[in-house]
Amino acid sequence: MEGKNYINGEWSTAGDGVIEVMNPATGEKFGTVPNGGETEASAAVDAAAEAFKSWSKTTVYERASLLMKWHDLLLENKQEVAEIMTKEMGKPLAEAVGEIEYSASFISWFAEEAKRSNGRLIPASKEGKRIQVLKQPVGVVVSITPWNFPAAMMARKMAPALAAGCTFVAKPAKLTPLTAVRMYELAEEAGFPKGVINLVTGSASKIGRVFTSHPAVRKLTFTGSTEIGKELMKQSADSMLNLSLELGGHAPIIVCEDANMDLAVEGVMASKFRNAGQTCVCGNRIYVQRSIVEEFSQRLQEATAKLKVGNGMDEGVQIGPLVDQDGYEKSARHVQDAVDKGAKVLVGGDGRAENGAFFYNPTVLINATQDMLVMNEETFGPVAPIMAFDTDEEAVRLANDTRFGLAAYFFTDSLTRGTYIAENLEYGIVGWNDGAPSSAQAPFGGMKESGIGREGGQEGLDAFLETKYISIKL
Ligand code: ADP
Hints:
This is NAD-dependent succinate-semialdehyde dehydrogenase. The protein is an alpha/beta fold.
């Protein structure tokens, strides 16, 4: 597949050559996209700035109707878009289809929600004054997204931005740009006016520099690592960009002795092994109450051993390849470090990296301790370390012992224990007996070094609106 950039309503191959997109399940080349840089990024921002003049003045009803056309086209073509995703990223096809549906759910939700971006009329303390509050689109929005959810991370930004009346420039990840290209083709078919949506693939640092320094840009919305998030925040200081940052996580999962064991195993499997463990909300550390740690570990081992690893295009595969060699090596390094420090492998602990394909087997470790790499760094792979705890206070303390604060999970049927744990976890997203809490209607985002701002929910729209206060003296 040959992908192009989309700038000011035109498809273009301009750039410094091309970037090759590889299939991580086979090691074969799947396609190319232009290696764009400053020139392309600037042209895209200029186009978005020009288009903002008219797009921001359209009614939200017009914008919502275009978004719903895009939503429908995406769902009509979901199988095809999902296949592109699986071939460039590796996730099982069923998960890729699920991601397209999830992406579409953000588009329809924000198409509706934007109709309610109401202002306010506030009673004034002085006679003859009127205090009006208006919500207005923030302006040109630029987005930088990662490879693990090539469709959803972009849709979650693009839909609310467009619904709010902003114009948009996307830079998808180098490893997975073709899903975005196909989504843009469908968006073009839906009929967005020229310049409203733009796509630039290529050099992250060059495009990133333009995004953070071009005077027309008003907002940067980013999903990726905490390190790059901090770098972009520093770069954005001079232009005082409005920022939304969805950064790394290191999710704890607490399983209490009174938990429904079936639900806990199911929830941990869903949170840990979706996308082969390559999600920022993936359970990374599992704390299990000592009285049930043996039974739980055995149940998790049995369920994990049944997972089918392979090419995501093959029927029934549940664990695809890791996206690249670095990803593979990180999982292997985390397991080795844990074993060196006293952990025991119950299942997995090995893999196969050959000819550009990187399969790491789903792994369960017991006897984990807080000093292990796997308990501190985001693994981004299918590795589940288990550590025993005694009291709820201890579990919460261990869970909060990290610079991250994105997602956390716990399992208990006790309202009292659950309320204590939920209210004391320093995390933006908490799943109580729920391994998959993310949805379009809910605010998704992190505390601490996991980021700034929320995506989804009413907050996800607010992120693209400025508040203007108009004081009227009669
Ligand atoms: P991940 O490990 O999830 O890929 P990264 O933070 O490395 O996380 O990448 C997330 C996105 O940020 C990708 O689109 C990547 O190309 C982009 N990126 C990486 N480095 C920079 C940079 N210096 N400036 C702007 N964007 C960057």
